[in-house]
Amino acid sequence: MKKLILLILLAFSCTGGYSQNKTRTYLADPELAPRDHNVEYSHLRLNVAFDPAKGLVKGKVMLTFTTLRPTTDSIWLDGIQMTVQKLTLNGKEVKHQVDSAGIWIYPGTNLEWQTKDSMEVTYECTPRKGIYFTGWNDSAIAPKDGESGFSRKEIWTQGEGTDNRYWIPMYDGFNNKLITEMIVTFDKDYKVLSNGTQISVKDNKDGTKTWHYTMTHPHDAYLIMLGIGNYAIDDRKTKSGLPVHLYYYPEWKDRVSPSYKYMTDMIDFYEKEIGVKYGWESYSQIPVQDFMYGAMENTTATIFGDFYMVDSRSFLDHNYIGVDAHELAHQWFGDMVTCRTSSSMWMHENFATYYSALFDKEVFGKDYFDWDRRGFQLSAIEANKKDQNPIASSMAGSIRLYPQGAFVLNMLKYVVGGRELYNKAIKYYLEKHKYENVEARDLLIAFEESTGMSLDWFWEEWYFKGGLPSYSVSYSEQNGTTQFTVTQTQELTDITGLSSADGRPVGLFKMPIWFEVHYSDGSVDKKQAWIEKQTEGVSIANPSGKKIDFVLFDPDNQVLKSGVSFHKPFEMLKAQAIKAENMLDRYDAVDAMKSVDLTTKRAALIDVYNKETFQAVKSAVVAQLLNDSNTISRTLIRSAITSPDVAVRKAVLLNTKLIASDLLPDYEKLLSDSSYDVIVSTLDLLNKSNPSKMPQYLATTKGVIGTLGRNVQMKWLELSAASTNDNQYLSKLVAYSGNSYEFRTRTNAMDALMRLDYFDTALLANLLNAVPSSNGRLAGPASEVLKYFYAQDKWKKTIADFVIAGKWQSWQKAAIRKIVN
Question: What is the Rg, in whole angstroms, of the alpha carbon atoms belonging to the chain?
């Protein structure tokens, strides 16, 4: 059972007394308080070189700091398994003690209070986190230019959460901002990127260069970055003159435009929308192989997975725009203004996710933005089925930090009255706390100070407490009035919703919600009401007795909720699906028709499809008519198969279990589709529905590589292996599972081999190479495939003997032994 904290709020009366019966109950958060430290670091200067084949870091870090307490007789540095060769304090060697987690420094005498001191640490380490050496131990002979099919040779870092301590000895906590410098010596044939401005590049006589980067404003240690590899650079400038440096692999020049589409436009948009100029001296982006996440918003220099570098065709299936916009927004929310503890991490990710959606709205329109919001809501509903942790908590989980929090920010904008006041408050917040650390209440205070609104209730129910409201709604017409009745139906607990007040039970939510009545003549009456009691009534007058076409509760879905039970007759759903202004209201009406029989809804759905412009609504219609044998429905499905909108074509495939014989020629045309994802799905469906023609289908798609781990080629090899006795296809899949390839290709190949139930020692070697990987997106799938084969008696001994005979480092052995006993 989760521990609770009871916070007694003293409700003072005008005579100075107080009531003790009003309390707030929150979930306890072990990371609510900032980390203890006795010195404040102001500057970090790192000289570093590498032996990449050994994964060796050779560094000298100088740290400038100020003592925070009158008595400072020891200092702690985070540093995982460092070998310290020399350590000096103010130029003199001092006693120090190293353990697996870091370094204790003992000055010998108390340092003078509030004075500036410095230390230098010369060290070596071979980290398993924080910094990654990709491709230096590739089993193939990889050409230096990164020729397709061989691993690229790169070095790159990932500092968040607190992983930079694995390669730099320092204070690695949120609550200390400092200026950083990076001086890197490496092979002259490579490019080096770090935070801030490149102030010099020096040629050395030994075939290396030394690059020197420095920041001009303080930032948090987890945002320190380094990227090394073989790159070309596309230099651009924003309207305000900000230099933008976009790194790319030289042979991928054709991917620069689709991958970095809108890059400078994003910066221009954010500066205008946020109202605060970009806070740093430049902005760079660098793709890297085998990045375990999507991207990382290091200050001035975002690292992202090179799987996001797409050509114009791959752009149809996945692109970098949303992630690009997300990481850029962090330069304001997270980098410039940074949370003090992990319990406030939402103040980074909520904002980055939300502003990415706002950029979607700017480029693709409101319907696209609203579909983003619906995705946020659905994610939040699933997360709240598992637990009711609040957003403002270190235990929030990724859904609350990203999509749920983004929805709540849009709701905050709705509650304060729209974009103008919301933007005023955000500008005030960022300017007040520029280059500082913040907590949840700092944002609340900024909103209250800039708008004059009392918003403590909003923070309580949406940030400090968990759960979601659920509503049951009904309406009736009586005596010239439309009467709505709303009941909150969620479970009432003291850790969700609002605390008890004025006789109201705990666990209820308080929100202003709009009600609309749309009439057959096209007119509409609307009313906003505060819904905060368990059951409430809302009346909208209809003195002329107009005929109601449809009614809406919370039009455009502005309020986050786990569900709404609101029964409407079919004719009302039909009118709403066709006439409602907002896409989400039209979508919800179509979705509500799922339980209606086909003969009743067929004509209405076809009408909706023909009038609708947004893919989500069209796709919802397709899902309901796909298995209808009616001639008119069949015509619509054929139209959907050839729709110019790739999302609609994908909806057809997603909802198809087996292809009907009369539609087979239409599906076969999708083998030449512009979308690689469509080709993969089509091949799978055709293999199930018409296997006799697989040789023809495979001939049609031969040579198509695809995107995201060679997805078409991997599916082609799998189906070729399954339909022939030719071992060349299996051999190619085994080769693609090896460490000469990036992780998505490897996992696609491993999964295909598992489905084919094919195993040999070459595959085993590749699996054992992948299982200990620091990239969980490689290690996880590889572990599952290894478990699958190890569970089979015929392979168990082969695998065990191979492991026993192998030479493994301790960290490799630890990972492998979790699967192979």
Answer: 30
Supply the pLDDT for residue 821. 84
According to DSSP H, which parts of 162-314 are helical?
A: 256-259, 263-274
Verdict on whether the full-model pTM lies above 0.90? yes
Cα–chain center distance at 368: 18
* Residue closest to 161 by CA, chosen among 399, 354, 348, 308: 348
Q: For position 25, what pLDDT does the model report?
A: 83
- Single out the residue of 740, 821, 733, 749 nearest to residue 782, CA to CA: 749
Region of 183 on the Ramachandran plot (φ > 0 left; ψ -120 to 50 alpha; else beta): beta
Q: Under a CB-based contact definition with an 8 Å cutoff, are residues 291 and 156 in contact?
A: yes
Residues in a beta bridge with 97: 104
pLDDT at 20 over 80: no
Please give the C-alpha separations between residue 176 and each of 80, 436, 445, in angstroms, as whole numbers. Answer: 19, 9, 22
Give the right CATH number for 43-228 from 1.20.950.20, 3.40.50.2300, 2.130.10.10, 2.60.40.1730. 2.60.40.1730
236: β partners: 244
CATH of domain 467-492+504-567: 2.60.40.1840
C-alpha pair distances (Å), 141 with each of 144, 554, 739: 9, 61, 11
Residue 500 pLDDT level (bands cut at 50, 70, 90):
confident
Residue type present at position 191: K
CA distance 778 to 771: 7
Q: Do 156 and 305 contact (CB within 8 A), yes or no?
A: no
Look at residue 150 in the predicted model and tell me its pLDDT.
77
How far CA 321 is from CA of 83, 202, 309, 359, 614, in Å, comes to: 42, 35, 11, 9, 19
- The residues spanned by each domain of the chain are 43-228, 231-336, 342-453, 467-492+504-567, 703-817
Over residues 779-798, mean pLDDT: 97
Res. 114 pLDDT band, cuts 50 70 90: confident
Whose tokens are 């939300």? That residue is: 354
pLDDT (0 to 100) of residue 434: 98
Q: 424 pLDDT exceeds 80?
A: yes
Q: Which two tokens stand for residue 473?
A: 């709604």
Number of helical H runs and strand E runs in the chain: 26, 34
Does the structure show a pLDDT above 60 at 413?
yes
Residue 491, class by beta-carbon neighbours within 10 Å (0-12 exposed, 13-18 middle, 19+ buried)?
exposed
**Who contacts 343 (Cβ-Cβ below 8 Å, separation ≥6)?**
29, 31, 32, 392, 393, 394, 439, 440
Give the integer Cα–Cα distance in Å for 134 and 124. Answer: 19
Q: What is the pLDDT of residues 537-586, one digit of tens each?
A: 999 999 999 999 999 999 999 999 999 999 999 999 999 999 999 999 99
